[in-house]
UniProtKB/TrEMBL annotation:
Species this protein is from: Petrolisthes cinctipes
Protein origin, superkingdom: Eukaryota
Biased composition regions of type Basic and acidic residues, renumbered to the chain: 44-60
Ranges of Polar residues composition bias in the record: 12-21
One Gene Ontology term, aspect cellular component: nucleus
Chain segments carrying region Disordered: 1-80
Gene3D superfamilies tied to this protein: Vaccinia Virus protein VP39 (3.40.50.150)
Protein's name in the database: Methyltransferase-like protein 22
InterPro entries attached to this UniProt entry: Methyltransf_16, METTL22, SAM-dependent_MTases_sf
GO molecular function (one): protein methyltransferase activity
Biased composition (Low complexity): 1-11
Cited SUPFAM superfamilies: S-adenosyl-L-methionine-dependent methyltransferases
Organism ancestry: Eukaryota, Metazoa, Ecdysozoa, Arthropoda, Crustacea
Length: 378
């Protein structure tokens, strides 16, 4: 697939092209699968996996970083189960030369997201510094040299099972750049989550929630019960036990289903932080999302919400230029939110700086944005 088509697939649904009806055979079947092409969206996030370090069961500390995890006693039955699960993934070569683990059973891939532990989260100890090793080539064939500034760092990784491409209604099964960006922000500002109950709305495969669980006291992970999203979240939580310090629960939320929202509201008596990443890609969904936010943030205790997203541009004949219509609509809904429940809530909305340190390895584009919304109850 060329770059132009890939960019077209990621646009706001209101601006996607609709293919013309295909000619059908005598049985009424389309002669090709053009409609499937237009209905498929693909994240631009690329995942660099290391075959020798990938463990389909566990994430957390990278062995190359000098980790020495405690070896638990495993029963023969448990060991056999793990071997069977390991065999469900086979090594494939990714688009950028990286090794990717593919599961034919789940039709998913298993990717490794490497990060550097922030100083304020790690406890320095002997034997945990990054060892000096011989230079190794990266995916482009260039040598990666251990530099002085990298000595003494402590590396970790999050293992995430996900889809590489899905239909639009299952985009939550992919990993989007906004989730890594928000996770990076949290590692830069861990005090935001310290001793808190965190709620992530529309968490997808759970990457940001797992990072939050490294810091927070409790994390509630939510998404719509569609496809394999909730099952993926459960499996990814089980894969990263060394990282997770918080109590974690997975709940369904459907922005169009008030029953799920009411049930979630009853469990939010002590939630003070709400996280959202790349949930804005359709105007009707944006409306339902903000209605949910209004309901949840108008109830005690006072809450602060962080919304990360990547602006997606399209060229329209109406404007004769590239615009980001879904993001523009998001800004309109921010204005709408600030006018709601004013007798009960003082709203504070600000756009946060994106100039913070990289802890994860990814491309931080200029289209990534981060908003902070605080509800002060009267």
């Amino acid at each position: 697939m060329d770059e132009g088509n890939q960019q077209q697939q990621q646009q706001c649904p209101d601006n996607t092209m609709t293919p013309q009806p295909e000619e059908q055979d005598e049985e009424g079947h389309n002669e090709d699968n053009t409609s499937e092409i237009y209905n498929t969206v693909t994240s631009e996030v690329h995942h660099f996996s290391k075959e020798e370090d990938l463990d389909t069961e566990r994430g957390a500390m990278s062995e190359t970083a000098g980790a020495n995890p405690v070896q638990d006693v495993i029963s023969p039955a448990e060991e056999e189960r793990k071997e069977i699960e390991d065999e469900e993934f086979e090594c494939l070569l990714g688009a950028n030369g990286e090794v990717v683990l593919w599961s034919s059973k789940w039709e998913t891939v298993l990717s490794r997201f490497d990060f550097v532990w922030p100083d304020q989260l790690k406890v320095p100890a002997a034997g945990q510094e990054t060892p000096v090793s011989a230079p190794v080539p990266d995916s482009d064939g260039d040598l990666q040299v251990t530099r002085k500034k990298d000595l003494g760092t402590r590396e970790g990784c999050v293992l995430i099972e996900h889809q590489n491409a899905t239909t639009l209604d299952l985009v939550g099964e992919q990993v989007w750049r906004g989730a890594i960006f928000l996770a990076d922000f949290l590692l830069n500002h861990p005090h935001i989550l310290t001793d808190t109950h965190v709620l992530e709305l529309a968490s997808g495969v759970g990457l940001t929630s797992i990072v939050s669980a490294m810091i927070a006291k409790k994390v509630t992970v939510t998404d719509v019960d569609r496809g394999d999203i909730l099952d993926l979240i459960h499996r990814n939580i089980k894969r990263n036990p060394e990282l997770i310090k918080a109590d974690v629960e997975v709940k369904e939320i459907d922005f169009y289903n008030h029953t799920t929202i009411d049930d979630l509201a009853d469990r939010m008596k002590d939630v003070s932080v709400i996280l959202v990443a790349d949930v804005i890609y359709h105007n009707q969904l944006t409306d339902a999302f903000f209605s949910t936010v209004l309901r949840l943030m108008s109830e005690p205790p006072e809450k602060t919400m962080y919304v990360a997203m990547e602006k997606r541009y399209v060229f329209t004949l109406e404007d004769m230029e590239s615009v980001a219509p879904c993001y523009e609509y998001f800004l309109q809904k921010l204005d709408w939110l600030c006018c709601q429940n004013l007798s009960r809530v003082d709203w504070t909305v600000e756009q946060n700086s994106t100039n913070f340190k990289h802890y994860f390895t990814y491309e931080r584009t200029r289209h990534l944005v981060l908003w902070k919304i605080k509800a002060k109850l009267k």
